[in-house]
Amino acid sequence: MRRIVLMVLRLFYIAPWYLFRIWRLSRNERASLEERYAYIKKVTKAANRAGRVKVESYGLENLPGENGYIFYPNHQGMFDVLVFLESCPVPFAFVTKKEARNIILLKQVGDALGSLAIDREDIRQSMQVINAMTDGVKDGKNFLIFAEGTRSKMGNRLLDFKGGSFKAAVRARCPIVPCALIDSFKPFDEKSIRPVTVKLIYLPPMYYEEYKGMKTQEIAAEVKMRIEKTIEEYEKSN
Hints:
Elements (H helix, E strand, L loop, with lengths): L1 H9 L4 H13 L5 H18 L2 E6 L11 E4 L6 H8 L5 E5 L8 H8 L2 E3 L4 H16 L4 E2 L22 H6 L3 E7 L3 H4 L6 E7 L5 H4 L4 H21 L2
Parallel strand pairs: 1-7, 2-5, 2-6, 3-4, 3-5
Antiparallel strand pairs: 6-7
Helix pairs in contact: 1-3, 2-3, 2-5, 3-4
């Protein structure tokens, strides 16, 4: 919370313009997704700098050559999406839980990128979101979804990944990109405004040929294992 206050105070003079501009872009049908994403990325970088957060990304060479894939990272908190928005070179939409849908700025950014809100307590609505993701990926859109369903409150430790989160990938037969977030909980969870570094590692993708014979629960366990292994290797080397 202290860091959010710091961001707001340091960007107080321009934050209203940022918010208004993103809102306008979300309603401008002539603005391309690339234009919207470029501006949101610019705002995100400014916010992260204001909050004294440095984002380091690795493995960008692992991203598939063509759009139409899904990022599956571990989930540590509200800052996770900001990490992706700063580091990811290609536009993407994200799936958020319905409770977070109307948070100021997150709502405007989500609308601009065509993001989706999921109600995990409503099976029918959840399937509608999965179907929308499937159609979007088939049309060449990229998505980000947190397969844990909720954020881990154990630092860099992971919760189990839910198999249902992988149904869209299976139906679209698209690449699955595991992603390891490291220390992304620190900016907003720690009661400090000291400089902090967050890392995002893009792992080699799982293509359909690799997972087509697996159940969604098996895919979920495999993706979780790859992310855990990556975090463990990082922690051992630092």
